[in-house]
Amino acid sequence: xxxxxxxxxxxxxxxxxxxxxxxxxxxxxxxxxxxxxxxxxxxxxxxxxxxxxxxxxxxxxxxxxxxxx
Length: 69
Fold this sequence. Notes:
Blueprint: H1 2-14, H2 18-31, H3 34-46, H4 52-68
């Protein structure tokens, strides 16, 4: 997971994309870093990703992050 995160971060330096942020968010979620995962998914949304799956994931993560706060 850590190697995937590093690879995606490097690709984002070259060309930011919503797809890369979704991948990054998924990797952070797998690692258990829910706050950073949420930020990554929010960035994907900000870059134009409007898929219903992303909206659902954001809603679920927001609830989990608020619950853990």
